[in-house]
Amino acid sequence: MRIKISVLTVMLFATSLVGVAQTKTNKKDSDYKFTIEKEIGNTGVKNQGATGTCWSFSSLSFLESELQRMGKDPVNLSEMFIARKAYEMKGEKYVRMMGKTNFSQGGAFHDVMNVIKEYGLLPDASYSGLIYGQKRFHHSELEKILTDMLNTTLEMKEGQLNPAWKNAMNGILDAYLGEVPATVSIGNKSISPKEYASSLGINADDYIEISSFTHHPFYKPFVLEVPDNWAWNSVYNVPLNELEEIVEYALANNYSIAWAADVSEKGFSHRNGLAIVPEKDWADISKEEKEEMMMKPVAQRKITQELRQEGFDNLSTQDDHGMHIVGSAKDQNGTRYYIVKNSWGDDSNDLGGYFYCSASYFLYKTTCIMLHKKGIPSAIAKKLAL
Length: 386
Description:
Number of strands: 14
Number of helices: 12
Strand content: 15-25%
Largest sheet: 12 strands, mixed
Helix content: 25-40%
Shape: globular
Distance between the termini: 37 Å
Radius of gyration: 21 Å
Number of domains: 1
CATH architecture: Alpha-Beta Complex
CATH topology: Cathepsin B, Chain A
């Protein structure tokens, strides 16, 4: 799907070039009044369609903003090239693990970096992943056919693995997503995907993932225990107050953030352009009260390290969705919010596909973030030995 930026999106979220405070709201007739403090340039909202590829959309949105930060011209990178290569890598892992690991549409931010290192990047114009005249992404049938094929291969009816399985997997991927071009034309040159990634100046090693949990030591990397971390890559661990400090420092210094979080919470409402954690327990909040909270600011719960850990331990915090933090704001009561770019289309709410996430929601329901190493305060970077 090509980028489609509505007039409303441009008006609401174009990078601010002047220091005049902007007051905005979350939806029509709402009493929320947000004063925008920071907006970081981004390439506009896309639509992941009926797929679990948010991790690819959010990561590439993040990298497109990184390229703008680096002074490059705006680019539209191919999410489906990344997803396609990740399917191949997941298939390899799944077979080696005899089907005892996760194979699905989901993934993690580091999957994008792993694909870039191994295979490179492509512009969306060279590989859209939409064929046969399709206008919207659908991967449920693709996932099922791939899974069935891999499981059938693992039955090893001939006593050993049939070496044809990789060709079979790639044939399915070609049929559903299209064949990957060996080269892309840039200017008057024909270059490989790896050469294209190199030409953009993206160094995958410049980006790290960070989280905050007490079941692992702080300032050390650990393997985040969520199903979509099929690659078993590590994230760095910091105390919760330092996770917040990192986000604030990064945004203040024009570094946007890839954000993985739980969006199954009652306080998350993309339609209403909000993600909040009210002081009052949701069990004690009526449907009418919830609707009112989406239209009128309420006090947010103070999130502690213990409360955050409890949510992860009892599985009420899940690794649901990848998004892109592109700015910050405060409401009329001084409550802190982050401006988040989603990948559900620019017609998915009154904000053109963006929403406001309270700092409390971020601290409570974040599973991890990814950002450039230079977006981390030096004192914290030193503790992480970066």
